[in-house]
Amino acid sequence: MRTLATALALLTLTAVPVAAQGLSKAEKVIDRTVDAEFERSVALLARLVDQNSGTLNLDGVTRVGEMMRAELEPLGFTISWKPMGAVQRAGHLIAVHKGKPGGKRILLIGHLDTVFELSSPFQKFVRTGDKAEGPGAGDDKGGMVVIVSALRAMQAAGTLKGANIEIVLTGDEEDAGSPLSVSRADLIAAGKRADVALDFEGLVIDGGKDMGSIARRSVTDWRITASGKTGHSSLIFTSQFGDGAINELARILAAFRKELPEPNLTFNAGVIAGGARAEIDESGNAKAGGKTNIIAATAVATGDFRTLSVEQTERVRAKMEAIVAAHAPGTDARIEFGEGYPAMAPTEGNKALLTALNGVNRDLGLEEMAPLDPLKRGAGDVSFVAHDVDSLAGLGTYSAGDHAPGETVDLASIRRQAKRAAILVTRLSAGRTARK
């Protein structure tokens, strides 16, 4: 891990108290520019939302990438498109802005795709005052609009010119292509080049207050397949036939509930099927058949578990394997794990970034942001770089009902999030946390 935490701490200690300083002249331009271009930002959001970019709509994801290219190139970014046909996905947009040699390298992360495929009836941007509904209006097209709004404001203030910024907009965040070693290679490489990573997925509000995301939990999929000796139901639990596949699976899931719980861990069985024959396909569709008087031969369950560190993932995985291996009489079972998203642990460097953001908040007259409980948000792309670089998440818009028809974005959140991001990036690029 780099020494950004130490640098930020020293800068915070040696600077004049932030509350007494206010915004610099350039930062005041940023503040005014974001407000002046608000309707332009909303218009961009409408265009992005109206272009369907469900993860599996490869053409739609590519078109959204072209729309973002059109916004970023005039700001001085060099754009490249990384096709992901090898993993049956559209690709990623990577934008690079070269600033002052030797300056801090800042990585901005977002994603082009949404969960709403072409088959979804939820397809259009509809504005009602300061709210707007639409597929991906918050997750993550709102976040991409915040990026553009912040960069435009920096350009107007003259602070973009010296900034070293790399933007990675993945095309498959909602359903990553496999293997992840291919689909996330470019993002991981960008993280290794960076000094700071800022993720523009949605802002979380808890208890009426904006929260800072210094941690995100991992997610690992699992599948359990249990088998048993089939026969007449009158012979269940005998030494000859044993417990049957369904009872074996029930034993395993009950043991998970009893033995696995620990802080920051959640685990879930999402789909289950059992009988004389049973299967669950890759899309989560289950089929099963049998009779009440036949001992089940097969039972299958799929689910996931989420942790806050690599160490916790390994520990929980080992516990699950041990539970599965303790077979009931006359049965067998195996557990398989998917690739999964890693955790973004709450490091000291991440905490220092939130401290820097709270310096921006004070100067903008906004409330301080407390660290968000990582149980209150899911996994995300920033976790692929968090092991290598100090990271902060949740810099996108505030929205409600994400991943479901009716997803609604709070348009006013574009303003405060773009101001926060632009001033934070400006200060980090200058190697400080507050105006001297």
Report on the structure:
The protein is an alpha+beta fold. The protein has 2 domains: 4-217 and 342-429, 3-Layer(aba) Sandwich (Aminopeptidase); 220-337, Alpha-Beta Plaits. It is 34% helix and 23% strand. It is built from 11 helices and 19 strands. The protein has a 6-stranded mixed sheet with strand order 1-2-6-3-7-17, sandwiched between helices. A 4-stranded antiparallel sheet has the order 4-5-19-18. β4 and β5 (131-133) form a beta hairpin. The radius of gyration is 24 Å and the shape is elongated. The two termini are 27 Å apart. The model is unreliable at 1-20 (pLDDT under 50).
Indicate how many domains the architecture comprises.
Answer: 2
Shape: elongated
CATH superfamily membership of the largest domain:
Zn peptidases
Largest sheet: 6 strands, mixed
Number of strands: 19
Helix/strand-derived category reads alpha+beta
Radius of gyration: 24 Å
Order of helices and strands: HHHHEEEEEHEHHEEEEHEEEEHEHEEEEH
User: Helical element count?
Assistant: 11
Low-confidence stretches: 1-20
Organism: Sphingomonas kyeonggiensis
Protein name: Glutamate carboxypeptidase
GO molecular function, one term: carboxypeptidase activity
Pfam families: M20_dimer, Peptidase_M20
